Structures are given as structure tokens and as C-alpha cells.
Amino acid sequence: MRLTTKGRYAVTAMLDLAIHGDAGPVSLADVSSRQDISLSYLEQLFAKLRRNTLVSSVRGPGGGYRLSRPLQQIFIAEIVDAVNESVDATVCGGSTDCQQGEICLTHHLWCDLSDQIHDFLSSISLYSLVERGEVKRISARQDEREHDHGDLSLREVTH
Q1: How far, in Å, CA of 35 to CA of 139, rounded?
Q2: Cβ partners under 8 Å of residue 145, min gap 6
Q3: Distance of alpha carbon 94 from alpha carbon 1, whole angstroms
Q4: What is the separation of C-alpha 81 from the centre of its chain, rounded to a whole number of angstroms?
Q5: Does the CA dihedral 16-19-21-26 come out positive or negative?
Q6: pLDDT tens, residue by residue, 83-138
Q7: Burial of 81: CB neighbours in 10 Å, binned 0-12, 13-18, 19+
Q8: Fewer Cβ close by (within 10 Å): the C or N end of the chain?
Q9: How many CB atoms lie within 10 A of CB 57?
Q10: Angstrom distance (rounded) from CA 121 to CA 72
Q11: Strand runs (DSSP E) across the chain, as ranges?
């Protein structure tokens, strides 16, 4: 099974946005810092997420991104699909040329698995992830790390 970095990063960034969005628009620089994802990569992902109406952008000071719908109405499969990713368990990428240019014995099995994975991701909302205890603990640790790093940078500037 293959879910590339693009899909993983898109889900991670959307979850970060869901967690921190209550305080207003979230800057991609903040997401980049907390999640250790390149800012330019996030910009590419969020262009696709915006085109697929999962996020909206807010311009100006204090601007950033916000979710376009409530957390309960955004599902992980939508995020993966929005960045043109597919969850594909086949060897051939679904092209049916798995065995010397022809379909292999297990092709339909792996296609069924891919469908099951997509169905599974379609059943998980951002809300259900935000509410998980381990997600809350990890987010709190990331926020603390970011806060400590910000204090260190400020001390370096003032001394």
C-alpha cells in the first residue's frame, strides 16, 4: 500500500489547521514550524486544498487559512483526493498490466483492498482526530516546543 508524502503532509497540515483554527486564520509559516514541513511545499498543497474548497484563505495582517466547513464535515479521504493522491495497493497502479503486460491473479484483491482503505479514510473526520487523546497530547507538546523556541529566539535578539 502506498500513501505518499503529499497525502500524509496534506492530512497533517489540515489536522494542524483544525486544532489551531479556533483562534482565527492559521498561517502556513506556523504550520510549517509546528509540523516541520517546508513552507513552499505547504503552499503547493494548500493551493490544491483551496481549489477543492476544503480551506479558504484570509489576506492581510493576521491572515492565513481556515477550514471551509465544520470539522465534522471534512473527511480524510477528501483531503487525500484533493491533493491528487490515490491509495493504491496494486503493483501496477491500477493499470492492469501487473504481470508481463497483463492482469495478475491477485489484481482484483489489491483493488478491493484499495477501495477498503479509501472507505476507511472516508469514515474518519477531522473532528474525530482532533478529539483523540493522543492527538491532543502531541499537539500540546508541539505548541510547547514552538513556544520555547520562540522564547529562545527572543532572548537571542535582546542580548
Answers
A1: 10
A2: none
A3: 12
A4: 11
A5: negative
A6: 987 788 888 888 888 888 889 999 999 999 999 999 999 999 999 999 999 999 99
A7: buried
A8: C
A9: 14
A10: 13
A11: 55-58, 64-67
114-123's contacts with Cβ under 8 Å and 24+ in sequence apart are: 114/1, 114/86, 114/87, 114/88, 114/89, 114/90, 117/1, 117/87, 117/89, 118/77, 118/87, 119/77, 121/75, 121/76, 121/77, 121/80, 121/87, 122/75, 122/76, 122/77, 122/78, 123/75
**What is the distance between the alpha carbons of residues 63 and 5, in angstroms, rounded to a whole number?**
26
SS3 content of the chain, % helix, strand, coil (to 5): 60, 10, 30
Which domains are assigned to the chain? Answer: 5-85 (1.10.10.10), 87-124 (no CATH)
Residue type, 145: R
pLDDT in tens, 46-85: 999 999 999 999 998 888 999 999 999 999 999 999 998 7
